[in-house]
């Protein structure tokens, strides 16, 4: 799965909505670069070189609890009111999948790649994210981590999902990605049917390893696994987006 350089933006603990805004700016930059790559040459003066790679990986830890849903599974009015009463935000997003939870103790990886440039299909991309999660968990000491056939997308340890995956792809540019439970308060998942999967549970690295695993301890191993799976180099940026 070879590819070029990917820009990494480490946001730290930020509101989920802010991470989404940064992602959208990255998607805009990736689409502009992709359009330029396939457009016929122009007789204009040479444009200045692009300072950053067109593809991006936006990493953050949601600073506040929020329930997000994609094309399906929006909570009804009564449930939405109960979730708000518990202090959680609600966010409709453009991705596949049902409602899930994002919050403190979770590594949120928003992945903006050009699938046409990588000659990669959408299912291959999702499988790549699953492989990143599986390798990461095993590297950290959870050998039972594995992926499962659709519709059980994600990374599982037994019947507990440790990482949820939901993506969007428009004009070959991906967005959204993977949410890994590091030291997440799993009680927040009890108020919903996570990802619309009845009878399935959730877990975290902290639960599986029997010790506290903060998001900060997972960042570097995650980046190593991402590089291995997607065959890319990483360029770190302090800028919020291009």
Task: Briefly say what this structure is.
Helices cover 29% and strands 26% of the residues.
Structure description:
- It contains six helices and eleven strands.
- By secondary structure, it is α/β, with parallel strands linked by helices.
- The mean pLDDT is 90.
- The chain starts with 5 loop residues before the first strand and ends in a 5-residue tail after the last strand.
- Helix 4 (122-139) crosses helix 6.
- The strands form two sheets. Strands 1, 2, 6, 7, 8, 9, 10 and 11 form an eight-stranded mixed sheet that branches. Strands 4-3-5 form a three-stranded mixed sheet, covered by helices on one side.
- The radius of gyration is 18 Å and the shape is globular.
Descriptive labels:
29% helix; 242 residues; alpha/beta; 6 helices; globular; single chain; eight-stranded mixed sheet
Strand portion: 25-35%
Q: What's the tally of helices?
A: 6
Give the averaged pLDDT, no decimals.
Answer: 90
Overall radius of gyration = 18 Å
N-to-C span: 25 Å
Number of strands: 11
Query: What ranges have pLDDT less than 50 throughout 5 or more consecutive residues?
Result: none
The geometry reads as globular
> Largest sheet, described in full?
8 strands, mixed
**How would you classify the helix and strand content by structural class?**
alpha/beta
User: Helix and strand string, N-terminal first?
Assistant: EHEEHEEEHHEEEEHHE
The level of helicity is 25-40%
């Amino acid at each position: 799965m070879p590819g070029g350089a990917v820009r990494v933006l480490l946001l730290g603990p930020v509101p989920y909505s802010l991470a989404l805004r940064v992602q959208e700016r990255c998607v805009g930059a990736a689409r502009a670069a992709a359009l330029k790559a396939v457009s016929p040459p122009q007789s204009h003066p040479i444009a200045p070189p692009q300072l950053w790679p067109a593809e991006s990986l936006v990493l953050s830890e949601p600073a506040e609890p929020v329930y997000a849903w994609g094309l399906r599974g929006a909570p009804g009015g009564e449930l939405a009111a109960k979730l708000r009463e518990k202090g959680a935000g609600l966010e409709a997003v453009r991705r596949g999948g049902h409602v899930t939870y994002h919050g403190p103790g979770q590594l949120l990886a928003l992945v903006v790649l050009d699938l046409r440039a990588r000659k990669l299909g959408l299912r291959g991309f999702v499988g790549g994210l699953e492989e990143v999660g599986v390798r990461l968990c095993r590297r950290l000491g959870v050998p039972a981590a594995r992926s499962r056939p659709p519709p059980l997308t994600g990374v599982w340890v037994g019947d507990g999902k440790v990482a949820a995956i939901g993506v969007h792809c428009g004009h070959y540019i991906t967005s959204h990605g993977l949410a890994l439970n590091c030291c997440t308060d799993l009680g927040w998942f009890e108020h919903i049917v996570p990802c619309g999967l009845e009878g399935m549970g959730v877990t975290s690295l902290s639960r599986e390893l029997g010790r506290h695993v903060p998001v900060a301890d997972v960042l570097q191993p995650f980046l190593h696994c991402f590089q291995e799976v997607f065959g890319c180099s990483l360029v770190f940026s302090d800028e919020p987006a291009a």
